[in-house]
Design brief:
It is a single chain. β14 and β15 form a beta hairpin. The protein is built from 4 helices and 15 strands. The chain starts with 6 loop residues before the first helix and ends in a 5-residue tail after the last strand. Helix content is 27%, strand content 25%. It has a single domain, classed as Creatine Amidinohydrolase. The protein is α+β, with helices and mostly antiparallel strands and 253 residues long. α3 packs antiparallel against α4.
Length: 253
């Protein structure tokens, strides 16, 4: 079932999503060579708590896996998503790291991700980041009333393919609100004009995950990586479908 949010619910989501936008900006100041992903996780948990929220990911459960232990997902280089923070994972000059964050406040969730540069990165990595970020922007632009989920998927996937990159297999965006994951599922590739129709009041987490070398994914517990160990990037926003242009909720004021 797809939930259409009321104005009161949307206002609650704006508040949880604003914390995420502020956190993603704050992380730009601490991500550097030599920091561990566990230190980043601790910074994020403290930041979220100081603003009255709770990390949506910490303790999150899926069948067959232990509860997720981190407040963020921290995915380095060939890791696509769901990287578990660890004191042993130390960032190195030239790495890229995707940070995925969920926050729940007053019963409503937001969800967003950004891929960060660790020091000076290669031209190859820089281009990957720019393509993935633009793929997200194109997907968001397609989230207008009357369009369908497939129009978002096509906007993302066709652009990624045109640029010579690959959408990670079977990893998708989703609805978000009272639950971290709601209907509809939003694939990052697909045909236009297919899937549920978009209506004002829908809140969606749109999140292209783009690989350099292959679409194939290897899964190890929570963590997903590119099968050929090439680089992967991840950008995500929670957006509101409105009567006009979509509103990006996961930004700082």
């Amino acid at each position: 079932m797809i939930y259409i949010k009321t104005p009161a619910e949307i206002e609650k989501m704006r508040k949880s999503c604003r914390i995420i936008g502020e956190l993603l900006d704050a992380l730009e100041t601490i991500i550097r060579p030599g920091i561990s992903t566990l230190e980043i996780d601790k910074f994020a948990e403290d930041f979220i708590g100081s603003r009255g929220g709770k990390p949506s990911f910490k303790g999150y459960r899926v069948d067959g896996l232990p509860p997720f232990p981190g407040s963020i997902c921290a995915s380095i280089n060939e890791q696509i998503v769901h990287g578990i923070p660890s004191a042993k994972k130390i960032l190195q000059e030239g790495d890229i790291i995707g940070i995925d964050v969920g926050v729940v406040l007053d019963g409503y969730n937001g969800d967003a991700a950004r891929t960060y540069r660790v020091g000076k990165i290669s031209a190859e990595a820089e281009e990957l980041l720019q393509v993935t970020k633009e793929a997200l922007e194109r997907g968001i632009s397609a989230a207008i009333p009357g369009n369908r989920v497939g129009d978002i998927s096509y906007a993302i996937g066709s652009f990624v393919a045109f640029k010579g990159y690959y959408v990670a297999d079977n990893l998708t965006g989703h609805g978000v609100g009272r639950n971290l994951h709601e209907e509809p599922q939003i694939p990052n590739t697909g045909k236009p004009g297919r899937g549920p129709r978009l209506s004002a009041g829908m809140t969606l987490a749109i999140e292209p995950m783009v690989n350099i070398g292959t679409n194939r994914v290897l899964e190890n517990g929570w963590e997903f990586k590119v099968a050929d160990n090439s680089l992967s990037a991840h950008f995500e926003h929670t957006i509101l479908v409105t009567d006009g242009k979509p509103e990006i909720l996961t930004v700082a004021d």
